[in-house]
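To: structure desk
From: M.T.
Subject: fold request, one chain
Message: Could you run this one when you get a chance? Sequence is below, nothing fancy, just the single chain.
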Amino acid sequence: MTPIPDEKVNILLVDDQAGNLLALESILDDPELNLVRADSGRAALRALLEREFAVILLDVQMPNLDGFETASLIRERDKSRDTPIIFLTALSRSETHVFRGYELGAVDYIFKPYQPEILRYKVNVFVELFRKNQAIKRQAHELARLSRNGAEQPLP
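Reply: Done. Structure tokens follow.
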């Protein structure tokens, strides 16, 4: 089953700097993507309550609730536990920070400035995986529905 036409895939962009969010939007600009901005960890958690995301691009260094704390809270919720997280950072180049990101379930840890094409390719991999997963879920739903309807039919 192919993706439903005109169905946009949600990408969550989390950064406390408006300029960084604007740069991410510029890099990832695609009519098939719905880029959702969050300017804090708390705003990201609220966005995750409202919709499902193919991938989260999460800045590490933010005030109040940093990227690591945000990721930890994301992983606590069943609905978002498996959502891929790509950490983005300009400052935290230490191995300790990188390891901590991976311990929290990050699929990648990218240092700024990053190559726009590489970021776009990485995000596109998760968008395609998300679409395929959604198609499988729709097929499973349809098979379950057909199975229920078949079970209700009297035998000849």
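Reply (cont.): The mean pLDDT is 88. Let me know if you need anything else for the meeting.
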